[in-house]
Amino acid sequence: MFALRSLLLLLLPLCPGPGPGPGSEAKVTRSCAETRQVLGARGYSLNLIPPALISGEHLQICPQEYTCCSSETEQKLIRETEATFRGLVEDSGSFLVHTLAARHRKFNEFFREMLSISQHSLVQLFTHSYGRLYSQHALIFNGLFSRLRDYYEKSGEGLDDTLADFWAQLLERAFPLLHPQYSFPPDFLLCLTRLTSTTDGSLQPFGDSPRRLRLQITRALVAARAFVQGLETGKNVVSEALKVSVSEGCRQALMRLTGCPLCRGVPSLMPCRGFCLNVAQGCLSSRGLEPDWGSYLDGLLLLAEKLQGPFSFELAAESIGVRISEGLMHLQENSVKVAAKVFQECGTPHPVPARHRRAPAPWEEASRPWRASAEEERPTTAAGTNLHRLVLELRERLGRVRGFWAGLPLTVCEDTRMAADISQEAAPCWTGLGRGRYLKPVVGSSPTEQLHNPELEGDTSGPDVPTRRRRLHLRAATARMRAAALGQDLDMRDADEDASGSGGGQQYADDWKAGTAPVPPPARLPRPPRPPRRDGPGGKGGGGSARYNQGRSRSQGTSIGLQTPPILTFFPLALVVLGPR
């Protein structure tokens, strides 16, 4: 018995003691030298970082084991990891903002330049055709282009009223010039304008030109404006969405992902890739623009195809001078018939004594209507391109960004600061608790899957108010572009159309293409008679005429008589595009 006890005493020093826990192992094998080196290079005060591991009972997010972080260091790391993540998201999407901004600038420059070229072509045509007669009345034509630009740039007066006012002013100037043997008092000109605004089309002094110009220019301008506004809305929405807000659950998950390895004294141990994907998906799934992003891009491409096809902005802009010239020629060729109808309705004006008569207007000197030559079908403007090239570039660039929001978590986790490289996936990595393999499931980005995200299980807040507002803006822009692709202007919901129950805004038919039969425009309620308007420049060659001010524009009349607050106007559209989401 004594010999057995002596043998046990001899063997006791050779037996291993109880194994230390994870913390004690870290305390024995690791110091804080590496953490001090990394954080010191980032500008942290070394006085806040102990040289050796200390108890971690004071930590709020990282495991409360042995640590290199004081409470102050942990709080600074929380802010730093959040800033790093937000910076990565913003940098990842900078090319997307640049793409939309560049496309917006190029298309906007092109459309504006085409209007300027159209105006310049009309001046050349009419100066050559009518000479001094055109110069005396140039303000009428300048006013037309000014109001077209206002509509495109500022969402001004409705295009139907702009064009109707132009043709009425042109008739008031042209009719007396064709009949210089008569004196036309203001009451007679007012009656003349009433006849041009009747819906039965019995007069038609300019033939079919007003209707064809209306169809061609209105749908092209409606589409161009909706398209450029859509690009601008997309650029602004994306720029705001990339300044992602971080929830409290996301902030803690980011700290566990990239901050806690520093506190554990292993800054060189990279986070596991699956760990990063779960954190990034949880932080971004409710802050991005899916599923509205794909529909928005489809709306852009659909409208772009219309703008270079049936709603060609180039052809529409080039046709303005042609249509007006054709209308004036029709008026000249049918002046006797038009005058007979006018005199029948408005009475015969008093003749002018022969010695006071003006010479007849030199309409016979007008040359044939100008048309674009074959080589001008696709002009290169001051914008340095044409519509065909712009659409090709747009299609190619949008193809690259279609999956941006769905792939953003992968893009973020490809950064070496966020996760281990995919080639080192088999190597041990930081799991959130220590060195090992990440065995938790990697979930998708859908709301249902995010309910089971192992890294943000308690964070089920969903999209915040700014994110919902951005998605709503994107849906509204998409709805406006899709309506414009059908020839509808959602921004011009006229009172007469609301009364008819259509509720679709102004509509313009596809009847101007070569080889197709004319299609009458949608029926519209007759306009009320307009009182005389003398608010233009007036005088010789001025823009003033015996036109009407009351009800001059349906859009203006609506805004004056029924001023609706913007939020109430936007709310019904919001309900339509927001849907059940």
From TrEMBL:
Keywords annotated in UniProt: Cell membrane, Glycoprotein, GPI-anchor, Heparan sulfate, Lipoprotein, Membrane, Proteoglycan, Signal
Chain intervals with Basic and acidic residues compositional bias: 365-379
Stretch list, region Disordered: 351-382, 444-468, 485-564
Position of the signal peptide: 1-17
InterPro entries in the record: Glypican (IPR001863), Glypican_CS (IPR019803)
GO terms for cellular component: cell surface; extracellular region; plasma membrane; side of membrane; synapse
Pro residues composition bias: residue spans: 518-529
Sections of the chain in a coiled coil: none
Family listed: Belongs to the glypican family.
Functional description taken from the UniProt entry: Cell surface proteoglycan.
Name of the protein: Glypican-2
